[in-house]
Amino acid sequence: MLEKLLITGASGGLGQICRQSLKPLARTMRLTARSGLGEAGEGEEIVYGSLDDAAALAEIVEGCDGIVHLGGQATEASWETIRAANIDGIVNLYEAVRLSTTKPRIIFASSNHTIGFYPQNQRLDTRSPVRPDGYYGVSKVFGEALASMYYDKFGIETASVRIGSCTAEPENYRMLSTWLSHRDFAQLIARIFAVPVLGCQVIYGASANSAGWWDNSAVSFLGWQPQDNAEAYRAKIEQSVPRPDPDAPVAKYQGGVFCADPIFKE
């Protein structure tokens, strides 16, 4: 059991899921976001702050022995927005960890948009070169590279989880391949913190989908065995969701509609 687990971006959708599902992992859960966390429950600490405030972030990180980093810009946006939240923000986080007394293990919420421009008929493993599909994807590639440097130089362990589509259930045809159930996500986090030696790993965050595109065999040492399969929802999707044109980005590329996004401006 961890002594103190920090969840950044705890007011977001995934943050709220982790707030509930990860309670058994730590004696104390420290939750941080800009706002919107409500009252602290049993075993919870709430600390408001921003990733762009390096001094405040250093205080938030201190004393934690595990971090689930969900904070930052979660969709495509202008470079100014992406840079502040996902570039400068994660540099501040890793510097806070480097300077901390506890050197927590980090789970970094990376994204499938690091490899979004691969075609959907190509199977990838964790060593496949990146092909980001926008500024957001580029920022996640940066985060993975930063994690690698901080591990090699300072020994800070990180699991960069390239989250597919973490929703209650798959909602469209693409998600039959990318879906990550809430249960499987929580179990993956538990396994990452449980192994005695992690190193610096890239992991595809997807359930055991029959139509999946990603191979996690390189991180089999984690002992993570996803329990859910998007195939259970195929009939529902076929009955309720129009099938996209085969030449549409959502049907052609692993990153889906992100591959068609324009360059955002402020």
* CATH class bucket: Alpha Beta
How large, in whole angstroms, is the Cα Rg?
Answer: 18 Å
What's the helix count? Answer: 8
CATH architectural arrangement: 3-Layer(aba) Sandwich
Proportion of residues in helical segments: 25-40%
User: How does the major sheet shape up?
Assistant: 7 strands, parallel
Please tell me what the overall shape is: globular
Structural class determined from secondary elements: alpha/beta
Strand content: 15-25%
What is the CATH topology classification name?
Rossmann fold
Tally of separate domains: 1
What is the straight-line distance between the termini? 44 Å
Structural commentary:
It is globular and about 50 Å long. The relative contact order is 0.14. It contains eight helices and nine strands. It has 266 residues and is an alpha/beta fold. Helix 3 (79-99) runs parallel beside helix 4. The protein has one domain: NAD(P)-binding Rossmann-like Domain (Rossmann fold, 3-Layer(aba) Sandwich), CATH 3.40.50. The longest helix is centred in the middle third of the chain and has 21 residues, at 79-99. The model has no long low-confidence stretch (mean pLDDT 97).
